[in-house]
Amino acid sequence: MTDHPNKDNPQAPADYKERPRWLDEKKNVDLIWYGLIGICLLIGAADFLIEKHPYFDIENVPNFYGIYGFIGCVFLVLAAAQLRKILMRPENYYEKKDAIIEKKNFGDTGGDADAPNAPITGHIHYEAAKKGEGH
Amino acid sequence: MGDFSPALILFFGGFAALAVPNGRLRNVFMLALPAVAAWQLFTLGFGEYGTYSMFGETLTLTRIDGLSRIFAVIFLIAIALNIIYAWHVRDAVQQVAALIYPASALGGVLAGDLITLFIFWELAAITSVLLIWASRNRRAFYAGMRYLCWQIASGVLLLAGVVLYFRSAGGLSFTNFLDQGFQLSDPAVLLIFLAFGIKSAFPLLHNWVQDAYPESTVTGTIVLSIFTTKMAVYSLARGFAGAELLVYIGAAMTAFPIFFAVIENDLRRVLTYSLNNQVGFMVVGVGIGTPLALNGAAAYAFCNILFEGLLFMSMGAVLYRTGTIKGSELGGLYRTMPLTAFFCIIGAASISAFPLFSGFVSKGLIIGAAAKEQFYWVWLTLLFAAAGVFHHSGIKIPFFAFFAHDSGKRPKEAPLHMLIAMAITAILCVGIGAAQLFTGPLGDPLYALLPYEVVIKDSHSAYIAYTGPHIVTQLQILLYSGLAFAVLQRTGLYPPELKSTNLDSDWFYRAPGRAFSGWVSGASGATFNALWGIFAGRIHAIVERIYAVHGPEGQMARSWPIGFMALWTAVILGFVLVIALFA
Question: Taking CB atoms and an 8 Å limit, are A73 and B485 in contact across chains?
Fold first, then answer.
């Protein structure tokens, strides 16, 4: 895909030794999780300590920025997950199409190995192209 | 060096680099070029240089003022950083392209008139595609072709707009079109607007970015991510500052790509969606058009080139070491690539605008300007987008590459030169972000470069980044966004990284559009064949008839040479007629 990936990396570095990491333990991950909740509570409470200069009324809602950020991100992720149902295709979706068109126009040029003979449904012209029709 | 253009120093220097033996010597030579260009930029100072004449118009090769200077400076810094990052590259195509393409973009930024802009606009298109094709594979070839179609379309629109503009304005100066009394709906200005819109990747004109950039090489993608879109932002700021439509276009740009970024598996492609989102902030700033907003757009472009570049660099290092950049195949790399992970997190913190990082002192100007000018919904959209940036660039990129589940991959740390490039970029990110703590807003070195004077009227001016409310509200939005990520991860609601292609607007021309054009070419070919069959049959009959009458054995050939000459005279006459018809 790109210029000489992995050229000097057969696998791990020669001097590398696998050792347990702090993050490997679940209780430490939990620690981060509770720490994050604690910090969020603190920064939410800090809202009452600052003197705001709001441009909009909504900024006067305590911890508006925090609440908005939280809701915004949850919405973002859940909506994006729904978007996947509409937009997600196999990884070689376009390669298949390319390979079929190439075969039609130029004969067998040795297109992507995983692409040429894969069935594609729903596009009549591609079906025709696959059978070598057209022109 | 007189009035010589800094852009041309880089452009011709890029070709001259080929004469230097490939290796360290060439690298050093390449690195010297942006230094010389920077020296020339500062020797020249503000003003207009290198006037030349074309079509009877006086054109200006180099215009240095507040707006072009800040873009020129960051372009030169970025060129130097990219050369360091790509120290290992020995591919002459990439080496030259990594100089002449940024040089073209720099030429566009420094262009003092529309013709000069057009020339560099097209040069940037043609030189940049070399970086995509440098991957030398089928995917990259196709993506490069599609990229080129978009870029050339932008150039053609620009040229058409410039021609119409010249007809109605009688000049070629590149200044704010709206201030000259033009409306966006005037054809000339509209065409130029669309040309700029393609290159800054307006919604639905955006997909060439996601399509082509991630197909480039390890180092090429970083170069690409910087110049074309920022040259377009500069052009918008020069020509369309204050066009209110840009505020809404920009707001849409900040919001919609982040949904795609969340579900995209190729981490460099995630960053290209983030690039759209980031340019959206700048476009909003340009659209608002007040000095504060324009300063914000310029400052954000400056900072973005560094932190987005840093993120691309860290992902490039991952790709270089592991051979993949798919989120589904990565994870746990912090064990063996701790420095790359560290630099990536600095880039992530900067793009998310955490206090002490460069995004904080620049993004705040744009959001502050939107609030100040009472764009309520736009302001809400920008806040949402800012949270979303933290989510997909700030958390997703480092999390899925370096943490998350252990992929079992144990690659080496990035090579030294990549680490050096990333370290310098990271230092700049933090330095710019924290400078104000030491210098105060009026002494801030970044603010000193801004196109408009920094005017601070009250204690809650957006320029004063480090105030209690500013820090607290920013941390609120970021930390609660982080909390949302953690909650979704722990509850399993977060969509996993999956091997996939996600359809975007390019689908229209890559699937049905392509099928349609295939059908059109097939149908027109068949029609042509049928018509030619009929036509050729008729011609054949006519020729036979002529030959029978006028040919050597025909009536007209009693004396052979006359018949022969008559035939040829007829043929030549017919030929001349045909030429005259088409000429």
Answer: yes
* Interchain pair A65, B321: CB under 8 A: no
Tell me the pLDDT band of A104, cut-offs 50, 70 and 90: confident
Is A1 a residue whose pLDDT tops 50?
Answer: no
Task: Find how far residue B456's CA is from the centre of its chain.
Answer: 33
CB contact under 8 A, A3 and B134: yes
Check residue B547 and give its pLDDT. 77
Using a CB-CB cut-off of 8 Å, the residues of chain A touching B403 are 23
Taking CB atoms and an 8 Å cut-off, how many pairs form between chains A and B? 224
Tokens 């940036």 belong to B389
Residues of chain B neighbouring A63 (CB-CB closer than 8 A): 476
* Interatomic CA distance for residues B226 and B314, integer angstroms: 15
pLDDT > 70? residue B274: yes
| Token output for B35 | 């230094």
Q: Binning pLDDT at 50, 70 and 90, where does residue B81 land?
A: very high
CA distance A124 to chain B (A): 9
Largest CA distance in chain A: 75
* Torsional sign, CA B2, B8, B10, B13: negative
Rounded distance between C-alpha atoms, residue B308 and residue B528, angstroms: 51
d(CA B216, CA B141): 10
The residue assigned the tokens 């068949």 is B526
**B339: buried, middle or exposed (CB in 10 Å: 19+, 13-18, 0-12)?**
middle
Q: Which of B70, B157, B138, B83 is nearest to B313 (CA)?
A: B83
Total number of residues shown for chain A: 135
Q: What CA–CA distance (Å, rounded) separates B260 from B556? A: 78
A5 pLDDT tier (thresholds 50, 70, 90):
very low
B5-46 pLDDT, tens digit each = 999 999 999 999 999 999 999 999 999 999 999 999 999 999
Q: Which residue of A has its CA nearest to B405?
A: A24
Check residue B555 and give its pLDDT: 60
> Over 50: is that where the pLDDT of A18 sits?
yes
Tokens, residue A36:
């994050």
Residue B464: alpha-carbon gap to chain centroid: 31
Encoded tokens for A6: 């992995």
Closest C-alpha among B404, B406, B362 to residue B386? B362
Q: Which residue of B has its CA nearest to A125?
A: B515
Q: With a cut of 60, say whether residue A117 has pLDDT above it.
A: no
Between strands A88-89 and B501-502, the pairing is antiparallel
The CA distance from B358 to B169, in Å, is 41
Q: Which residue has the higher pLDDT, B63 or B567?
A: B63
